[in-house]
Amino acid sequence: MDKFKALVLNAQEDQVTCSLRTVKLQALSAGEVLVKVAYSSLNYKDMLAFQKDGGVIKNYPLIPGIDLSGVVLASVDSSFKPGDHVLATGYGLGVNHTGGFAEIARLPAAWLLKLPDGLSLKQAMLFGTAGLTAALSIKELLHAGLQQDSNLLITGATGGVGSVATRILAHLGFTKLHALVRKDYQVELATSLGAQQVIKATEILKHGLLERQRFDYVLETVGGEVAAALLPKISYKGAMTLCGNAGGVALATNVLPFILRAVRLVGIDSVNYPQVQRREVWQLLANKWNVANQLLYNEIDLAEVPTVLEKLKLGHHYGRTIVVLDNTLDAAK
After folding, report:
1. pLDDT by residue (tens digit) across 189-200?
2. What is the CATH classification number for the domain harbouring 198?
3. Which of 67, 71, 211, 312 has the greatest number of CB atoms lying within 10 Å of its CB?
């Protein structure tokens, strides 16, 4: 398959343009493994990649898409063979290396994982980068002492990371799940995912240096003023994970939650997370934490990607969106 379809981003003066093209293998970045892509997914970082000053892509033209699942066509690395079902998220995929919004991808073997038993190619991208980030956040909160009856707040609870995290935690039997949302229609969505209480963002944004201890733990996906407003509300010895910047990159806080309540702030990075530990997290997602079929999601094709990313930019997107490249590949396993 020397020619195939791909979305290609290019920079023209003050804007980024996107076109659906037929390209050749020579358009792909270098790598040891050639993959027939089954699915990719849409993430906040993908939306940023489509912006001129998004801070994601520096060199054009480039095929975007920061994750993918598919089947190996060829490999010069002995770790993989034709027919292997694989997935990839993060590293330079869709950033400085041609990504998942194409029918064919070529990747370094070190970026790929074999698909765990119990997970289909479709389910792998129902989770995708957002699901991996959610799982890493949960893992860190459990390490910090999170219990099933802890008061846990999930921000951005109907977004990509937040919706997956809420569903996993409800599936695991957590009984005090609080969801933070901004819009009225998101209340019902958060409840359907398993949140026992839904809080509007306007209720928490005003804050002092130190406030009533309201939440034991916070899974924070937004950043900016939301993260700053929540730190003074966390209980003694509590913790907050932080994985997003949709609300801004600045964090206007003070030291009191840390030195008077021993609150821990834990950063979450899914881009360069080590492969050995990454494999362990995907095993959880394939087994005990497998809620892929219970998630809120939509399916689109390559041509629809720019339109849906624009909705994400405007805050009109919820749950997960997967990009279907070849939905017949799951049957080949």
Report:
1. 999 999 999 999
2. 3.40.50.720
3. 67
